Amino acid sequence: MKKTLLLMTILSATSLFAAGPKVPYTHEGFYSTDKVQKPVHFVSVEQIEKSLEGTGPINVSFDIDDTLLASSGYFRYGIDYFGIPDHPKGKFSYLYNQKFWDYVAEMGDEHSIPKESAQALINMHLKRGDKIFFITGRTKHSKDENYTSTKLSKTLQRFFNLPYEVYVNYTGDTPTGGFKYDKSFYINKHNVSIHYGDSDDDILAARELGIRGIRVQRSYNSTNPQKMNGGYGEEVLINSAW
Fold first, then answer.
1. Global pTM?
2. How does it assemble (predicted)?
């Protein structure tokens, strides 16, 4: 019974991490935690690079949580210490507490773990001369301006050995500019050609703009519910859960 209740609680949280319209999966995919993986359109970093041969430098964007970083520790901490009493979202009420987002911003993800797959992607794009952008569904610090130098942008520069500081675009999980998905406005603003992300909304935002969206597998131990890799027939970066 306890396991059933826990599963129901986890499933009820799925809407908290995606603001755009829900779209049914159209292809057979797999969850990162499945014991048997299904045949989907896997791609490697080398294959992505080869597909770009003959193409000049492009703009590429990355989601942050579970795409660049294994950052679930902060969100698990938020459940215990930033919950809002009697909030309708229950244990996930912390996501609606600005103090939680201020805390995360002030920590600057120094205790998150950078994913090896993200490093490989970034290295490849830097070698090509591509320009990198970071777009997150997080809410920015109450005292910060969007797309400016922050502790997080400095941490990401250090984690991924970036030659320059990449400012972070915060969407606040809220669509804007007449788009359906929260990252679409920023992907469009920066004229991005490829967007990488672990969520359904990452893939659907790319499709809303008619660009290439590549799924990065969500970390195995993520507190964010697993999504179906390849569920929309999209390319999935192989071995990208870590």
1. 0.87
2. Homotetramer.
